[in-house]
């Protein structure tokens, strides 16, 4: 393979250590916020059978029909096609059914994060391997769960220090209201059918709500006067949506209504939302999206189970942190202690002390392959060590060592057994 061919796959990136502080902070803060709101972690496989996505997201959705990464299988081994997950919800609902989580008491609040894969056209903020933070509440049809999920997405983005974050909401209502809306959309688009591309014509026939997600110019031009879901809500659906809004008011979430958010996936009912950033006058870069999916478990062959969920696009959040110049804490562990040995016996002792320092939680390095004092001191300097511990033949014999403060150059003798508590105390003061 030539060096030109040695490159990552289009739309897939390396995230290098220099950017890792930002990523680690986002993932840690999101996970901690979720745990504080009563969510626990679930991990689902990166690969599922294609019919999990077919049945849930829908075979004629862009995600399934065009963007799935199919997994090549060993010949004759498995004839059910498999694919890399393009999102988390379908896999989590599959896991919920397969593991009978509904039988455990109470609603299940679950979160996860990781990469998902979509064969999309790559550009800034749009990748083929993208990272999502996902949260789902399964087993409750209460509007408070919709508000809780939105509150979680909003709180994470707020706590990250992002400005101009706006929650945009819509409601498709229950299945009856959704059916009324679907009929109206079909009736509205029918006279314009010849203007639509082939895929959209098929959608008009089979799943008219998908049209509202279409990026095609012909559809976009017609959207302005298209029927709106909120006008089709029946009494119960209206009451449900009003309660969601009232809970959001209680949680202090700022939101606005946006009739264009429909999320044409087959399983959405009631609440649909996006969280966008309008920083720098942008017309709204989508950082997160989600909604209620009461029909999904049944579509997958399980018993009826209500659910509501959301996914935050982590790549976009990281780009937004950079655009908004948010200062993030440096999570990189600087070297605190560097061990220097001056003889074979000193090296043995140094390794013993090193293990104790690690057990005491101190960031400690050692170059056991170097013997010269100068070379080891240079390595300690390069690593930015705050202290070095020097152990020669005599020190090792007496269970002693020399502690050197790298900034002041001051040296002192200490017992090896005292070193951990002594340095831990000093370093804690400066950490
Ligand atoms: P979705 O699952 O399509 O609702 O997407 C949830 C979030 O993931 C979006 O709001 C975006 O922030 C992010 N996202 C979706 N597609 C991509 C992509 N191709 N590249 C990067 N981020 C994406």
- Residues in helix, %: 25-40%
Distance between the amino and carboxyl termini: 47 Å
Largest sheet: 8 strands, mixed
Uncertain regions spanning at least 5 consecutive residues:
none
Q: Please count the helical segments.
A: 15
Radius of gyration: 28 Å
* Strand runs, count: 16
Shape: elongated
Class from secondary-structure proportions? alpha+beta
Q: Can you list the strand order of the major beta sheet? A: 1-5-6-11-10-9-7-8
Ligands: adenosine monophosphate
Give the structure's gist in a few sentences.
The chain has 431 residues and is an alpha+beta fold. Helices cover 38% and strands 20% of the residues.
Explain this structure to me?
The chain has helices at residues 17-36, 50-57, 62-65, 89-98, 143-159, 175-189, 198-206, 217-223, 235-251, 296-299, 314-323, 344-359, 373-383, 393-397, 419-430, and strands spanning 40-41, 47-49, 70-71, 82-84, 108-117, 129-138, 165-171, 255-257, 269-277, 285-292, 307-313, 337-341, 364-366, 387-391, 400-405, 411-415. The chain has 431 residues and is α+β, with helices and mostly antiparallel strands. Strands 1-5-6-11-10-9-7-8 form an 8-stranded mixed beta sheet, with helices on both faces. Strands 13-12-14-15-16 form a 5-stranded mixed beta sheet, sandwiched between helices. A 3-stranded antiparallel beta sheet has the order 2-4-3. Strand 12, helix 12 and strand 13 form a beta-alpha-beta unit. Helix 1 runs antiparallel to helix 5. The two termini are 47 Å apart. The mean pLDDT is 91. Adenosine monophosphate binds at residues 87, 118, 120, 125-127, 130, 132, 286-289, 311, 313, 315-316.
